[in-house]
Amino acid sequence: MGRAPRVLIGLTLALLLALAWGSASGALGLSPWALLSGNADTLSTQVWWQLRLPRLLLGVAVGAMLAGSGAAMQGLFRNPLADPTLLGLASGAGLFVALWIVVFQDSAANSLYGQFAAGFLGALSVCVVVFSLAKRQGGSAAVMTLLLAGLAINTLAGAAGGVLAFIASDEQLRQLSLWGMGTLTHALWRTTAIALVLMSLALWMLMRSASELDLLQLGETTAHAAGLDANRLKRRIVVATSLGVGLCVALTGVIGFLGLLVPHCLRLWLGPGHRLLLPASMLGGALLLVVADTLARTLGAPAEIPVGLLTSLLGGPYFLYLLMRRSPSC
Description:
This protein is mainly alpha-helical and 330 residues long.
């Protein structure tokens, strides 16, 4: 068996173990064996079916989407420090969702689908702006423009979000505050089902781009000579990333650093080949978010820590470590 199947099988088994642990852990302890054998009491069955299972599935979808998007963005910009959060995609999606909550709260227009659309449009708008700015530059200048544009958009989105928080009602302010920290608390079957369908579409679009991303690493000129339509590839990744990140932010708030931490670590371990890196990142992102969410539910039980805080506490120090290393591979 080759290396790639071993890596993917290992990550899949680790994810299944994390899901079993997540199913059993929480304020109410559940036995996976009792659930599988049908010997669990009615309360345990209802808690698992109505609360735990949709939450775990949403964690898998969001983790896979964020990490897969991060791997694709790193390959697209040929920069291992690119991710949806650093580029401002999550902030843009978050700003549009916050605007939707404040403007349409207590209105018939304030629906789950409207929140989805707001997150997608926010991420897509930011992605188009950042991509247009970086496209005017070349080489290292493009990377610098990319990061500076993401920093500017994050700052502007934070300021605009502060204005919305200032004018929001007490109920809206609490909703914005909890949602902004990142949480899977509000996972329901109807939201999880929609997320699984749309994120699967976005992930499929990213997986279709694996071979082309490998070719793009040789440079746009060489890739074009080999028959690659770079503009079509960029459009596909832009749409897939914006759709996926927008949905993630609309459903769970901003979960930081997951799109940077997982694909960067796996890139250092597995190499730059996207046919292995993309699926490994998706599995690794799902694994990390399921583990982080289980810890968020159990460390302070019966209270719950927002999972976005845990991922930021993990990713922030790692990002500083990368900056201090100043390694050519980073």
